[in-house]
């Protein structure tokens, strides 16, 4: 089976958030399962491919030239890098000052239109689109192959002015949205199937609270909407072989995890004195609820937990976290930045892993944490509900501690509960082993996507 998979991010070539990891993990597992996957990624520049060929694309509504660099990347394998004017930038979406590029609409509409042209030229059996960046491809595809849209995050919709409609293609009227152009609303109307990245997120996006204005559009497609839980790359995230951590370990050698806690505390300047260490690895955005930790920092002494945050994003929030860390340096550390190597040690060295998200379509870090024996403390939203049953509510199957609401008081109570739980060594070991024993890989999710492709693909 041959599918076209279009995405704006792909690890390690273009990484902003979980979309990059999800796209890389799913496509490589699909290939392992025998699917011929053509990955179409914008050509942001500076990516070298072996055995490269250039395929010019005919994009009718766009006067400027477009084409695809096809070749082999050392990590991602075969790649189709879609080159459209203005696409090459140091960051896919953001200018150096942290605001979006002013022409993001033009860049990604051109990308989506080029994806449609490639599909019209190459006739794959199924087209798999991801998020708003690719959604407008459906405006140009008339009588094309069956299509799937994966929604990784409904909060980002790529809203643009109405005049774009005249350039999107023959089905552009579906993309008109309250006097503007919305690539996600059109894709929701036109995709044959819509996949949300966790089963629980399906329910949330059908409600006004979780639908970001698109709940009505989604409700009208409810029969074609399903949830497929993301996985993680269990080769990259493997405490038994991880080159980034101080000492490798597994569920039967949990005592070796302690060396990682010592290394982490050394690195962060925290005392390693038996008080549980909770970590957070995150983008700094409203979604992740990191601001909710600010009022919590001064009460950490009473909890008792030490907290370390690795995060990048919102500069104002980062500034506030730096202040909190300087005022409570014995119990709270903030490392600003995106640091993949350190993130591995943050999971390996942690007793607890905190995720105070306001909403979370799936979330990968709670799975990464459980893979490394850190007990997750999460809010009851999105994919966190699917992956982290509360251990007090489900004594035999629970994997972590759940805060009922994303607010500082609930989070504090949850941290306290979790800290007591991991303070009891025997109970902590049971819980850690439970999280480590789950298969978090892409095997099962890729199988579910494959079944979907098979269901949609024309027979023969
Ligand atoms: P989202 O996509 O909403 O940011 P996810 O949990 O799905 O959240 O995925 C985030 C991914 O990015 C994870 O693989 C996580 O380890 C990584 N990550 C996030 N922030 C950082 C950071 N500051 N440093 C290193 N890795 C990070
Ligand atoms: C988004 C969501 C995150 C999800 C990721 C991959 O960035 O915020 O919850 O895990 O996409 O699907």
Describe the protein's architecture and organization.
This protein is of the alpha/beta class and 460 residues long. It has two domains: 2-231 and 442-456, Rossmann fold, CATH 3.40.50.2000; 254-436, 3-Layer(aba) Sandwich (Rossmann fold). The protein has 16 helices and 18 strands. It has helices spanning 18-32, 104-122, 131-135, 137-140, 165-168, 183-190, 199-205, 215-219, 257-268, 315-327, 340-348, 365-371, 382-387, 408-423, 425-436, 443-456, and strands spanning 2-6, 36-42, 50-57, 66-73, 77-83, 126-130, 147-151, 160-161, 176-177, 180-181, 193-196, 225-227, 277-284, 306-313, 332-336, 352-355, 375-379, 401-403. It has a nine-stranded mixed sheet, with helices on both faces. The protein has a six-stranded parallel sheet with strand order 15-14-13-16-17-18. The protein is globular, with a radius of gyration of 22 Å. The relative contact order is 0.11. The mean pLDDT is 96. The site of adenosine-5'-diphosphate has 18 residues, from helix 1, strand 13, strand 14, helix 11 and helix 12.
List key phrases describing it:
460 residues; Rossmann fold; 2 domains; binds adenosine-5'-diphosphate; binds alpha-D-glucopyranose
CATH topology of the largest domain: Rossmann fold
**Beta strands, count:** 18
Which molecules are bound besides the chains?
Answer: adenosine-5'-diphosphate, alpha-D-glucopyranose
Distance between the termini: 10 Å
Name the CATH homologous superfamily of the largest domain. Glycogen Phosphorylase B
Count of helical stretches: 16
Low-confidence stretches: none
Using the alpha-carbon principal axes, give the shape: globular
CATH architecture of the largest domain: 3-Layer(aba) Sandwich
Broad CATH class of the largest domain: Alpha Beta
* Cα gyration radius (Å): 22 Å
Mean pLDDT: 96
Helix content: 25-40%
Q: Largest sheet at a glance?
A: 9 strands, mixed
Strand order of the largest sheet: 3-4-5-2-1-6-7-11-12
Structural domain count: 2
Strand content: 15-25%
Structural class: alpha/beta
């Amino acid at each position: 089976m041959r599918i076209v998979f279009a995405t704006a991010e792909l690890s390690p070539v273009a990484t902003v958030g979980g979309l990059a990891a999800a796209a890389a993990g799913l496509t490589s597992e699909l290939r392992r399962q025998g699917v011929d996957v053509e990955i179409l990624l914008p050509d942001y520049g500076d990516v070298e491919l072996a055995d490269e060929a250039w395929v010019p694309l005919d994009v009718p509504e766009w006067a400027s030239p477009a084409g695809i660099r096809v070749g082999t990347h050392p990590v991602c394998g075969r790649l189709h890098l879609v080159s459209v004017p203005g696409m090459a930038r140091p960051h896919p979406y953001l200018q150096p000052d942290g605001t979006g590029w002013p022409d993001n609409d033009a860049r990604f509409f051109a990308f989506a239109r080029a994806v449609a042209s490639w599909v019209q030229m190459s006739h794959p059996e199924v087209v798999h689109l991801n998020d708003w960046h690719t959604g407008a491809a459906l405006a140009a595809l008339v009588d094309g192959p069956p299509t799937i849209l994966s929604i990784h995050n409904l909060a980002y919709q790529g809203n643009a002015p109405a005049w774009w409609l005249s350039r999107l293609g023959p089905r552009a009227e579906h993309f008109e949205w309250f006097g503007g152009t919305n690539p996600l609303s059109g894709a929701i109307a036109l995709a044959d199937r819509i996949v949300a990245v966790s089963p629980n997120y399906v329910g949330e996006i059908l409600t006004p609270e979780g639908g970001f204005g698109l709940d009505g559009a989604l409700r009208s497609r409810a029969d074609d909407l399903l949830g497929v839980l993301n996985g993680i790359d269990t080769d990259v995230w493997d405490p038994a072989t991880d080159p980034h951590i101080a000492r490798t370990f597994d569920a039967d050698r949990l005592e070796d995890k302690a060396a990682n806690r010592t290394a982490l505390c050394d690195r962060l300047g925290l005392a390693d004195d038996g008080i549980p260490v909770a970590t957070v690895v995150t983008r700094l955005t409203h979604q992740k609820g990191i601001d909710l930790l600010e009022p919590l920092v001064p009460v950490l002494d009473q909890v008792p937990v030490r907290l370390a945050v690795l995060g990048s994003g919102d500069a104002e929030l980062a500034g506030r976290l730096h202040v909190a860390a300087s005022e409570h340096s014995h119990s709270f550390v903030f490392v600003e930045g995106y640091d993949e190597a350190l993130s591995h040690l943050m999971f390996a060295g942690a007793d607890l892993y905190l995720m105070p998200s306001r909403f979370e379509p799936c979330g990968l870090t709670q799975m990464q944490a459980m893979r490394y024996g850190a007990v997750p403390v999460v809010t009851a939203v999105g994919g966190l509900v699917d992956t982290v049953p509360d251990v007090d509510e489900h004594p035999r199957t629970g994997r972590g501690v759940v805060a009922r609401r994303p607010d500082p008081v609930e989070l504090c109570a949850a941290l306290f509960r979790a800290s007591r739980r991991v303070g009891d060594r025997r109970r902590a070991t049971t819980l850690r082993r439970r999280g480590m024993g789950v298969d978090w890989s892409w095997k099962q999710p890729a199988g579910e996507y494959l079944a979907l492709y098979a269901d949609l693909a024309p027979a023969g």
